[in-house]
Amino acid sequence: MTCELAVVGLVYFEIDCPRVALAPRSGQELWVARLPVRLGGCLNTASVAAALGVDAAMAHPRGDGLTDVAAASVVERLGLRAVTWPSGPDPAVSLVFRDGGDRAFVSAADLGALAACPPLPAARWIHVAGLHEAYAVASRLAEARRRGATISVSASWAPDLLAALRRERDQPWDLLFMNGAELARAAAGVDGDEPPWRAVAGAARELVVTHGGGAALYRDGVVAEAASEPVEVVDATGAGDAFVAGVIAGRLRGRDDPAALALGVAAARRILGVAGGVALDPTRFADLRPDPAEAS
After folding, report:
1. What is the CATH number that goes with domain 2-18+32-117+124-289?
2. Which of 229, 245, 232 is closest to 278 using CA atoms?
3. Number of Cβ within a 10 Å radius of residue 56
4. Distance CA 123, CA 128 (A)
5. DSSP per-residue codes, 83-147
6. Residue 267 — pLDDT band, cuts 50, 70, 90?
7. pTM of the complete model beyond 0.85
8. Cβ distance 71 to 98 under 8 Å?
9. Residue 8: in which H helix or E strand, if any?
10. Rounded Cα–Cα distance for residues 254 and 293 (Å)
11. Which residues contact 42 (CB under 8 A, 6 or more apart)?
12. pLDDT at 83
């Protein structure tokens, strides 16, 4: 399989739970208006990238559980190609609890299955959906990079690994995506005179940090920035993944740093306006598609 972009990680089956459902009494059945279910994880970035016109594929472990069947159905519906390998049934499930605009999670994930990742597709760009995933498939990423692929990683919220980024020295990745809270955690305890981005400079050649007002790209200092205008938020799920997809789509089409960041911000705004992080309606992104003729 060859493609422009391969997104590596887990496909999460997500169940929205009201907080009242945390502790029903023994023998009690609590009824609520509805319990929305969605898919997420690496499918978020892959689906948005495809909606932006990128030839995108996925690489993820897959079992034979009911959630695996649901994920395969959506992947087929969206026309995404996938490289899969065996895992236990239902390898990634999250209960999502919402409190106003914030979220909390109870999750189970078969991270060990990632270690059996086969060689990755021949792709111009490979993106990994989280730090746990990136370290689990590190040897495969190194192989792909030697073949000429650009490697990017989303930090995701992995507190135990964010601090470890400070120990990286050889820049194993080309691009690292973080939000402001993740960068603050990674830079905690670093000399206050040092800019926070320097704390993770050994992990990747470039760093992109998202914040409430937009995003900034660092390559030995601030290189580019993009602002975001206020938007009515239906659901914040997957906004960071959509941003990543937009930046990658821009880069694959040869756009400069500010334009690639701006496309990422625009893609994130579209996802903020729908429930869930998967681009189930690709037409929502049609006007954002970069011209394939821009590709370098």
Report:
1. 3.40.1190.20
2. 245
3. 29
4. 13
5. EEEE-SSS-EEEEEEEETTEEEEEEEE-GGGGGG--PPPEEEEEEES-HHHHHHTHHHHHHHHHT
6. very high
7. yes
8. no
9. strand 2-8
10. 9
11. 7, 8, 9, 10, 11, 58, 59, 60, 129, 133
12. 96
